[in-house]
């Protein structure tokens, strides 16, 4: 019974992947207790010494000389020569239960457990963000836009997260670490994409104005390009060394000496890379792209402005013909009636920020907002110097 | 525990009885087992009931015993008209020192070895007088007790045929006999030896081996033979099994044996152990004496008698049925 209980405990603990030493100790304790209990139970049934000797006397035909000697009558008789013990132990009832018990314990100890993956699979599935970041790393490797080491770093960090016990994958610490990694990747990728895009714009500007730009302007652009190059090498994501080498060969201070076609190719490639990088973020689900359908609402859910909500309103913003209001109209006016439309100058109309989502061309924020939020002080300084 | 026997005492006793048996076997041919049983019974201080057909050597046995053991013996032929006084003795009016007094004249019972021939032919009154003397070793006449000589043995015989006009001994009186032995006729080879060695009318003469005092001393030694508890338990279970419901064989028994049978069996076992040179009784001793001790003490059921069974057969079946060892073996042990 003790053996059976011990075996069951061992099996149970192994199944739970728990240390079995306590079960062995408990089994040993149970063995001792059950042994004492069995002894107490069986002791009244033990045959007495006199009975045992009597059986030997009968078996060896000693006419109870052993019994008498045990009682102090007469000498102990010599051991009969060449006579086996009249009693023998039945091996089966003794050995079989013992073997069964030991076998049960060994079986519980060494029986192969079901694969753990089945258990963990049933318990946890890895967070979807990890899968998304894995997909992003795969995409980066295909694009060959960024330095391979950056991709490897991302994979190492994901691996570190996966090494944690499955039970901890969804605890706050893991989720926070995942969120931070995701945010950092998004930030780095966006920064690199912006840097490439800005560099591409700079090269385009240089390409288009290569014949009109003065020498100081060319030098200012060269300085700006060097700053862009520095940005492309900063942060967690870096441009590929091949592309960096091509950029470093460009000297905008000597713009006339640069091959226009080569400049245009470089500019286009940078722009394309920037777009691919952004698309990769969207495809991997790291960033919600600007969709063509109404958004789902909520903070950070993206989706852009709804087609219906802005289209009707903006359709009113057609060129407006000034009309005078007559007193009769004022008298008959009700709250909410449109009385007058005037064409007027507005700051929002000065800067067109381009397509913001879907088919709608919306007036973006003012130029000051863009100036303040999208450019670094150093960039502003360069641009001011250029446009002044 | 009594003072155990010394090796010397055991050896000398055993040697003496070997000689006794040898001497008796030289007189009685082909009765080795009977002789052994008779000797055991005498050493156990018991009386003996012999049953057998006439001419098988009962009287011869008694005469030989008296010679070999140096005992004074007398023979009484029991008849229906035999009176108690005829065997115990009678007061006779005699002139003693000028006065007429009743003087007790001892009967044939005043002998160390008495052969009561065909005891079942005497009246119950006479049988009772004999049985009282057997039990108490004394005779009372006119209020005066007269002790019988020691050692005192009664060897009674009864004839299993011609039972008309006989008085079968009641069970209470049969219980006084330690052994009942059946005398069987020997085979042709035994008869041939008898024919070759004996003449008609010649009396058997055996060589005296023992003195009465020696026999009395050996009887005392027999009392000191050690009886182990397991053997005593076997005796108890054997006697207890003769009672209704205590064994399968007991279904054929109406009344079982008394505690006197158990005591007698122990005494006989002791005597047999001593004769065989041992200081303790064993199962074998008890098995050897169980049938002679029990067979005349069992009152059989009617159906058993119808089946032709007798006390000897039932006692043997009982001995075979009851195991010597009280406890059964544990399940993990087996006998080889």
Helix content of chain B: 40-55%
How many domains of chain A? 2
Say what the CATH topology of the largest domain in chain B is: Rossmann fold
Order of strands in the sheet with most strands of chain B: 2-5-8-1-9
**Can you count the helices of chain A?**
16
What's the mean pLDDT score of chain B?
85
- Strand count of chain B: 12
Biggest sheet: strand arrangement of chain A: 2-3
* Protein chain pair with the most extensive contact, residues per chain: A-B, 27 and 28 residues
Assigned CATH architecture of the largest domain in chain B: 3-Layer(aba) Sandwich
Strand content of chain A: under 5%
Describe the structure.
The complex is a heterodimer of chains A (388) and B (336). In chain A, helix 1 (2-15) packs antiparallel against helix 2 (21-42), helix 1 (2-15) runs parallel beside helix 5 and helix 9 runs antiparallel to helix 10 (215-232). In chain A, strands 2-3 form a two-stranded antiparallel sheet. Chain A has helices at residues 2-15, 21-42, 49-60, 65-70, 91-110, 116-123, 128-143, 148-163, 172-208, 215-232, 241-248, 260-284, 307-315, 327-332, 367-374, 377-387, and strands at residues 87-89, 355-357, 360-361. Chain A is an all-alpha fold and 388 residues long. Mean pLDDT of chain A is 76; it is low at 118-122 and 306-316. Chain A has 2 domains: 2-119, no CATH class; 128-284, no CATH class. With 336 residues, chain B is α/β, with parallel strands linked by helices. Chain B folds into 2 domains: 1-216, Rossmann fold (3-Layer(aba) Sandwich); 225-325, Magnesium chelatase subunit I, C-Terminal domain (Helicase, Ruva Protein, domain 3, Orthogonal Bundle). Chain B has helices spanning 7-27, 32-43, 58-69, 84-88, 124-136, 171-174, 188-197, 212-223, 229-240, 259-275, 283-294, 302-306, 311-321, and strands at residues 48-51, 73-77, 89-96, 99-106, 113-117, 138-141, 144-147, 153-158, 179-182, 253-255, 299-300, 333-335. Chain B has a 5-stranded parallel beta sheet with strand order 2-5-8-1-9. A two-stranded antiparallel sheet of chain B has the order 3-4. In chain B, a hairpin with a 2-residue loop joins strand 6 (138-141) and strand 7 (144-147). The two termini of chain B are 34 Å apart. At the A-B interface, helix 3, helix 4 and strand 1 of A face helix 9, helix 11 and strand 12 of B. Strand 1 of chain A pairs antiparallel with strand 12 (333-335) of chain B, so a sheet runs across the interface.
